[in-house]
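User: Fold this; C-alpha cells only.

Assistant: Input:
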Amino acid sequence: YQRRVRGDMIFSSSILFNSFFFCSLFLFSNLLCYQVNTKIKASGFYDNFHTNRSDLWVPSQSYGILHIPKTLMTPQNLHFNATLEGTPKFETGLVALISDEPCLSNPSACCIGDDCAKYTGSHLETQTEYLYGTFEMYSRAGHNATSGDIPYLMCLATYNSDPSHNEIDACFHGGDVSMHCTYFSPDMKEHKYPLNFDSSKEYHVYAFKWQTESLEWFIDGNLVYQVTGRPVQGGIPWEPSRVVITFRPLEGFAGQAKIDIGYVSYTPIT
C-alpha cells in the first residue's frame, strides 16, 4: 500500500535499545557490518475494536489522500463495535469500508485543497512504533453484497519510511486467492501463498512473526512461509515501525465493499 503524508513521530518510551555490531566476511575480503537490536522491551497490545482507542491509533482524519487510484482515507468508513457478518468467533469488532459513492455524490467532500480523490478508503496506524514480535489479525477479507471478486487491497503491515523504507505485509487482493507475504528493506520481495479457502467468506487468523534474522507468516497458527537473512539493506527489515491496517480500492472498483476484523494484536519477543 502507499503511505500517507507522514505526521509527527511518536516513539514508545517503553522501548529500550541495546545494540551491538556484528560483522560478516564476504568474498574478496569485503566486510559488511550491521547493527542488531538485541534487547527490546515493548508493551504488547490487543484491540477488539469495541471502542475507538485514541491511545493506540493515530486519528484517522490525519491520513489524507493516497494515490493510484486517488483514495481519501476517512474516519467515516471505520465502524467500531459493529456487528461482524458471517459466522465469526466474535459478535462485534471493526467493520471498515471502501466506496465510490461519497466522491460521486459530493466531489468537493473528497478534496484536500486541489487534490481530489475518486474513492474513500479505510486506514489505521498506531501512534507507537514497534519492533520484533508477532503481529496478528482475525478477519474476513474484502467483500460486498454479492462477491469477494472485486478489485481491492487489504493489508496488515508494519511500516517505516525514515530513514529507510522498512515494511512487512500480510496482504489480500480481491479476486486473487492467495496471501501476499511481502517485505521491503527497501526493495520489495513478495511470495504469494495460495489459499484453500475463500478469504472473503471465511474468518481466519493471519499473522507474521518478525525476528532479527527471520520473517515467518502464519494462517490459523500454521507456518506458511519463511525467509531468513541479516537486518541490513536488502535483508530483514530492522527499523522500528508502526502497525498499519489498510483497506483501499484498486482501479476498476465500483460501489461499496467492507472488511470485518475481530481483533488485531502485537506480542513482543521476550
